[in-house]
Amino acid sequence: MIFFGWGRRSKTADLDPGRALVRIWGHFHLFWLFRFSWPSGYLLATATEAGWAQQPISNEEGRALDPEGRTDVNLWWRFGLLLPVIGIAFSIFMSTVGPGS
Length: 101
Fold this sequence. Notes:
By secondary structure, the protein is α+β, with helices and mostly antiparallel strands. The protein has three helices and four strands, in the order E-E-E-E-H-H-H. It is elongated.
C-alpha cells in the first residue's frame, strides 16, 4: 500500500560457508516515513541437501553469534521520523523551562 503497510522483514549475516544468522523484525509504516519496527528474534540457517534449514535461537545466542551487530536494525528502520519529532519536542520543552524563559 502507498499510505500504510506492515509485515515482517529480515536481515542476514553469513557466519561461515553453509551457515547464516537471520534477524527477523516486524514493522508498520505510514507513508514510509512514520515507521515503527520491533525485533522478533533470530534464526540460524544451515545449508542442507534439500535447501536451507532454519532453527529459531534465543536473543542471547543471536547476539553472541553477531557481536559486530551486522543484523541490527538501523535507527531509521526502527523509528523513522519519530526521532526528529522527539528532538524538536525536546528542544521546545527545554526552551520553555530553561533559565532564559
